[in-house]
Amino acid sequence: LMIRRPPRATPKPSSAASDVYKRQAQAALAAACPEPGEAPVSFSAQIAPVLKRCSTCHSSLVPIVPRMEECTGCHPNEPPAAGLDLHGNPQFIYENLVEVPSTELPGMHRISRGAPSESYLWRKINGTHLEIGGSGEMMPLGAPALDEETLNIMERWILDGAPLN
User: Fold this and answer.
1) Neighbouring C-beta atoms of residue 93, cutoff 10 Å
2) Whose CA, among 78, 91, 110, 122, lies 20 to 30 Å from 141?
3) Which of 113, 49, 120 is nearest to 82 (CA)?
4) Whole-model pTM?
5) Measured between alpha carbons, how far is 71 from 56 in angstroms, rounded to an integer?
6) Are the CB atoms for 129 and 136 separated by under 8 Å?
7) pLDDT in tens, the chain (165 residues)
8) What separation in angstroms does the CA of 1 have from each of 7, 36, 91?
9) In angstroms, how far is CA 84 from the centroid of its own chain?
């Protein structure tokens, strides 16, 4: 006769910690199991070049061209706009984005690994930032909205855990 012990009760992590663990697990799973035939998104080759186009407003360097009037209305004396510096190499851009609190909505990260809907930059480029208490206009301001293919690539990168690759 074999006596089975009931499983040991493990303490439940807090809700916030649980969400972080869940996002990390989902990101790891997505990275480990990409769709068949789908190459991982490269931050350096595919994401950073898109973001670098925004460095006219989002740079700590003196802009090559004057900032647009639309930008200086909200960001008159705070280069880079919203504290987001996108002028450097891919690693520098990455370090200013991923798991960094947004200045417009400090309770949210600019990019949250594995969670586009919890990423303020993702909300800004989709025009859904006001729904969650954000401010300002949809980005990129004064330029055409990002096309569907670019948005899909950025979403895949975030869902894959926003790796620096």
Assistant:
1) 25
2) 91
3) 120
4) 0.68
5) 10
6) yes
7) 555 555 554 444 445 556 655 665 565 555 555 555 678 999 999 999 998 887 666 666 655 455 556 555 555 555 677 778 777 789 988 998 999 999 989 899 999 999 999 999 999 999 999 999 999 899 888 788 999 999 999 999 999 999 999
8) 19, 48, 61
9) 12
| Cis check: omega of the bond before 80, within 30 degrees of 0 | yes
